[in-house]
């Protein structure tokens, strides 16, 4: 079956077309037919596409909204110019999988989209006002183009973390704030953490029950997740993606009193400070240079690179601290798994994070670590009690696979159905 995977943003639409089915999922032989990005929706958009065989191609076209962007994409995919042998007409797209940022407490698993489910996603807009409306626009556009006979599935960033117990998701603020406003830890990057966890299980021939790991997704956004018996039991991101690890431009954990203090001292509004903590902090804020780890690693080698060195140290220290905290809270783990642009590609950062974790049984193999760039495999020594792996993430693939599983009625083993909750829930 050919699954179109869509990630709809405010002015962008990321897509992949993946051929997959139960057998291909089992054998890890899913086939990526094409991928691409439409940017600048709302004006003269830039469309970048790449098919399995062909080179990267770029076009531009005025595209006023998501619906027009998807129509353009559908026309291109089915054209001779695209040259995708498997897609000759819209009927060759058998299903659509949507990335949806926030499923609140309503969605603990990927879900076939019905009117009730769409209402549920709308109810979660309060929790992700910048993201869920765009995801909904993507769903509505796809429904318009592909019609009711093509099944569509929503895959939520938050769903994997719905297994976190209350003592880990509650903040120690007055309980009525949770009841009234749903203020709690939700966690994000769930699709990535789950993909990496499933892949670790496949690599090590483990059942879900046997997966006890800490996953570190280190990209522009960064988060750590404690996974016990294949389920998320804690994660570093919170009510929003701002909490936890140091990120490209986000500060991660800070003392909440700092917000009021910055407002008073700098004459800024709370909203201004939120922007400062989300967009001007993290690696960028500390280094005063950039949020790009590659540049920072180069800069750190220069004599005047103190800002870069400091930013890297703060970044690695925070990640190490979370590994330690999760080891304690989950009663030990079998492995630490690195993913995301930094986690997959930077042996130096991985080594810096793992430095001093020998007490916990983690010993990196210098050669394996150095060679593991954009590859999948073990980077710890043979005798390391706490092992370390690099597993490149693939959120689109998980979305395509979940879409197929839902359509075929296969329950994903790590998830419990929560759909009845959606259908019967009141307003949130
Ligand atoms: P996003 O969260 O936007 O998907 P990515 O997962 O692509 O981001 O990660 C982007 C980060 O990965 C950037 O900080 C970039 O510098 C870093 N990165 C990519 N390649 C390397 C590399 N070879 N060495 C160090 N950092 C890298």
Proportion in β-strands: 15-25%
Secondary structural class = alpha/beta
Bound molecules: adenosine-5'-diphosphate
Average pLDDT: 94
Determine Rg (CA atoms, Å).
22 Å
Characterize the quaternary organization of these chains. single chain
SS summary, helix count: 17
For the secondary structure, the number of strands is 14
- The percentage helix is 25-40%
Order of strands in the sheet with most strands: 5-4-3-2-1-6-8-7
Q: What sort of overall outline do the alpha carbons produce when their principal axes are compared?
A: globular
Please characterize this protein's 3D structure.
- It is built from 17 helices and 14 strands.
- It is an alpha/beta fold and 428 residues long.
- α7 (190-203) packs across α16 and α8 packs across α9.
- 45% of the residues are buried.
- Residues 413-428 have low confidence and may be disordered.
- The structure holds adenosine-5'-diphosphate (ADP).
List the helices and strands and how they pair.
Elements: E1 2-8, E2 12-19, H1 22-27, E3 31-39, E4 44-51, E5 57-62, H2 66-77, E6 95-100, E7 111-112, H3 115-123, H4 132-146, E8 152-156, H5 166-169, H6 175-181, H7 190-203, E9 213-218, E10 222-228, E11 231-235, H8 257-266, H9 270-279, H10 282-287, H11 293-299, H12 306-329, E12 335-339, H13 340-345, H14 347-354, H15 366-371, E13 377-378, E14 387-390, H16 395-407, H17 419-424
Parallel strand pairs: 1-6, 6-8, 9-12, 12-14
Antiparallel strand pairs: 1-2, 2-3, 3-4, 4-5, 7-8, 9-10, 10-11, 13-14
Helix pairs in contact: 2-4, 7-16, 8-9, 11-12, 12-14
The chain binds adenosine-5'-diphosphate.
Adenosine-5'-diphosphate (ADP) binds at residues 219-221, 248, 292-294, 297, 340-342, 345-346.
């Amino acid at each position: 079956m050919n699954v179109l995977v869509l990630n709809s943003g405010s002015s962008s639409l990321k897509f992949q077309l993946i051929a997959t089915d139960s057998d291909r999922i089992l054998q890890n032989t899913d086939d990526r037919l094409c991928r691409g990005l439409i940017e600048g929706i709302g004006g003269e958009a830039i469309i970048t596409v790449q098919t399995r065989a062909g080179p990267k191609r770029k076009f531009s076209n005025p595209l006023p909204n998501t619906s027009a962007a998807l129509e353009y994409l559908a026309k291109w995919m089915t054209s001779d110019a695209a040259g995708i042998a498997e897609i000759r007409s819209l009927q060759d797209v058998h299903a659509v999988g949507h990335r949806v940022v926030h499923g609140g407490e309503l969605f603990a698993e990927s879900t076939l989209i019905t009117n009730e489910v769409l209402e549920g996603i709308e109810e979660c807009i309060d929790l992700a006002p910048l993201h869920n409306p765009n995801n909904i626009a993507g769903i509505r556009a796809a429904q318009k183009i592909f019609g009711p006979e093509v099944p569509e599935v929503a895959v939520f960033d938050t769903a994997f973390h719905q297994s976190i117990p209350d003592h880990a998701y509650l903040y120690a603020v007055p309980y009525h704030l949770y009841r009234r406003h749903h203020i709690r830890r939700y966690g994000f990057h769930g699709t990535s953490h789950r993909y990496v966890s499933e892949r670790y299980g496949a690599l090590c021939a483990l059942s879900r029950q046997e997966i006890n790991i800490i996953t570190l997704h280190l990209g522009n956004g960064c988060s750590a997740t404690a996974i016990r018996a294949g389920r998320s039991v804690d994660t570093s991101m919170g009510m929003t993606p701002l909490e936890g690890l140091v990120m490209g431009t986000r500060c991660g954990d800070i003392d909440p009193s700092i917000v009021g203090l910055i407002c008073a001292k700098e004459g800024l509004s709370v909203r201004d400070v939120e922007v400062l903590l989300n967009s001007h902090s993290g690696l960028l804020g500390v280094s005063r240079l950039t949020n790009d780890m590659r540049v920072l690693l180069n800069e750190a080698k220069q004599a005047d690179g103190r800002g870069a060195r400091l930013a890297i140290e703060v970044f690695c220290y925070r990640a190490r601290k979370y590994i330690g905290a999760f080891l304690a809270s989950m009663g030990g783990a079998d492995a630490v798994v690195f993913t995301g642009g930094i986690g997959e590609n930077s042996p130096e950062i991985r080594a810096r994070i793992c430095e001093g974790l020998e007490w916990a049984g983690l010993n990196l193999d210098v050669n394996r670590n150095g060679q593991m760039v954009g590859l999948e495999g073990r980077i710890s020594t043979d005798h390391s009690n706490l092992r370390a792996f690099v597993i490149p993430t693939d959120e689109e693939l998980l979305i395509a696979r979940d879409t197929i599983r839902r359509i075929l009625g296969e329950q994903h083993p790590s998830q419990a159905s929560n759909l009845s909750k959606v259908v019967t829930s009141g307003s949130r």
